[in-house]
Design a protein that fits this description.
This protein has a domain of 84 residues: RNA-binding S4 domain (Structural Genomics Hypothetical 15.5 Kd Protein In mrcA-pckA Intergenic Region, Chain A). The protein is 26% helix and 18% strand. A hairpin with a 2-residue loop joins strand 5 and strand 6. The protein has 138 residues and is of the alpha+beta class. The protein is elongated. It contains 5 helices and 7 strands. The strands form 2 sheets. A 5-stranded antiparallel sheet has the order 3-2-5-6-7. It has a two-stranded antiparallel ribbon with strand order 1-4. About 4% of the residues have low confidence.
């Protein structure tokens, strides 16, 4: 009996649509599929501007906004894959349109047990934080 399915057997991981949680896991946005499902349930995933459920299908051209570690990643689906693939194939399956993050000023931290800061250190800390002690006093 002839095969009814005309898709090539070697490309079973590629279809015309994929679940959003499976796609996020397959392109390595989340480490596990359950983490991707949890993010969908928590409302951290949006497809074309709408809040997505885990089973919502994504197709080529769909825009995803995924909140990870406090900032949004903007992704566009190029290939809807459902199985975890190598990094090169995963990179081809998505287009990352995330704007570059602004550098965050890192505050110097004192060693634990170093005691209270000296007057000079306090002034330096105030200057880093944008507070100048001379302006506050009248």
């Amino acid at each position: 009996m002839p095969r009814l399915d005309t898709r090539p057997r070697t490309m079973d991981h590629m279809t015309d649509a994929a679940r959003v949680d499976a796609w996020l896991w397959a392109v390595r946005i989340y480490k596990t599929r359950s983490a991707a499902t949890t993010a969908c349930r928590a409302g951290h995933v949006r497809v074309n501007g709408e809040r997505a459920k885990a089973a919502q299908p994504v197709r080529v051209g769909d825009e995803l906004r995924v909140r990870i570690a406090g900032f949004d990643r903007h992704l566009v689906v190029r290939k809807p894959i459902v199985k975890r693939v190598g990094a090169a194939v995963a990179a081809e399956a998505m287009e990352d349109r995330t704007p570059p993050r602004e550098p965050v000023a890192v505050m110097a931290q004192r060693d634990r047990g170093a005691g209270r800061p000296t007057k000079r250190e306090r002034r330096d800390i105030d200057r880093l934080r944008g507070r100048d002690g001379r302006d506050a006093r009248v």
